[in-house]
Design brief:
Blueprint (H helix, E strand, L loop, with lengths): L8 H17 L4 H8 L3 H9 L19 H11 L9 H10 L7 H10 L21 E3 L16 H14 L6 E4 L8 H10 L2 E4 L9 H11 L11 H17 L11 H6 L1 H19 L17 E3 L6 H4 L3
Parallel strand pairs: 2-3
Antiparallel strand pairs: 1-4
Helix pairs in contact: 1-2, 5-6, 5-12, 7-8
């Protein structure tokens, strides 16, 4: 029996429609059938309604620089290898770019990993409330955002002592203390301390983690850290572990809000040089693969101001705020 010839675009379309109809007739859900055939439900719907064939001009052209099986395997091998197996695609592309290497975009890496069932996500948070949003705050330099200490219990007295200790180290005039709307932050002792120090209290809305993205992101990273023990034998053991975590968090962990550089790189100004290297890598990749991807490269420009609860988030700020 002779081999089957190469299918034309129209023949391929009809073949996909036949397989889709067969799957649906056997009880497979339409969404699942489309997933198996690696095609969108909108395309299937359009093809079904257009009996004269798909008239889009783009379908008459061969895809330029379509990713090969070899390239997909290269992505899988790299992402699942020893170096990057615990690293998200958005961090991988940032690290490779500053090293002068471009393999694929973040979206392409995610698509390839998802296709193989290798991309996992933490369950989504509960929807927030419609209460009033906290005041917009912003940072423009180092040491303008500080986070917690480790204690064996929460209370207004402990929170008050932390603020007094912080006052002895630096002036707190004009400072905002942003926290969740919990009981340790509301006692008269704590509120009186804040008033005496000239600190303005700011509270997150219930179940709205975006109101305090700095601390919430920190807690989430801590909880899902590979070495997090979940419980400690003593307060001393907890503080020792957290001290090591903070060192890693500041010197190794890359933060999405500051375009995947470490806090220390941001603090010293080294991030400007790093972002410049990434931009050159992407520009070179665009020239080499001009037929693949969008015309605009990823924005690696330095962000001067970072916002907490931005009043009006613009597209460029949403990536780095």
């Amino acid at each position: 029996m002779g081999g089957r010839g190469k299918l034309t675009g129209e023949q391929e379309r009809q073949r996909i429609l036949e397989l889709f109809e067969q799957a649906v007739q056997t009880g497979v859900r339409k969404n699942k059938a489309c997933e198996i055939l690696d095609i969108s439900t909108r395309t299937i719907s359009r093809w079904t309604e257009n009996s004269d064939g798909d008239k889009r001009s783009s379908t008459k052209k061969e895809l330029v620089n379509k990713m090969s099986v070899h390239e997909e395997e290269q992505i899988i091998s790299m992402c699942c290898g020893e170096r990057f197996r615990n690293t998200a695609p958005n961090e991988i592309v940032a690290i490779l770019a500053e090293e002068g290497t471009y393999i694929a975009s973040e979206s392409t890496m995610s698509r390839v990993l998802r296709k193989r069932g290798l991309l996992k996500h933490i369950t989504e948070s509960k929807p927030g409330t419609k209460s009033k949003k906290p005041e917009e705050l912003k940072t423009t330099g180092p040491n303008q955002v500080l986070s917690w200490e480790v204690h064996s219990y929460e209370s207004g007295d402990v929170a008050s002592e932390i603020m007094k200790k912080l006052e002895r180290k630096r002036c707190l005039k004009g400072v905002h203390l942003h926290s969740e709307n919990g009981s340790p932050m509301k006692p008269a002792t704590m509120l009186a301390t804040l008033q005496n120090l000239g600190v303005a209290p700011s509270f997150s809305r219930p179940q709205v983690s975006n109101d305090n993205p700095y601390s919430e992101s920190l807690f989430r990273t801590l909880k899902y850290n590979a070495g997090y023990p979940k419980s400690f034998e003593s307060i001393e053991a907890a503080r020792e572990w957290v001290a090591k975590f903070v060192n890693w968090y500041n010197n190794e962990h890359r933060h999405s809000r500051i375009k995947y550089v470490t806090p220390m790189q941001r603090h010293t100004g080294e991030d400007k040089e790093i972002l410049g290297k990434r931009k050159k890598t992407y520009e070179a990749a665009r020239l080499k693969n001009s037929g693949r991807g969008s015309k605009n490269i990823r924005n690696w420009d330095h962000i001067d101001t970072v916002y907490l609860n931005p009043a009006d988030v613009q597209p460029a700020q949403s990536e780095a705020a």
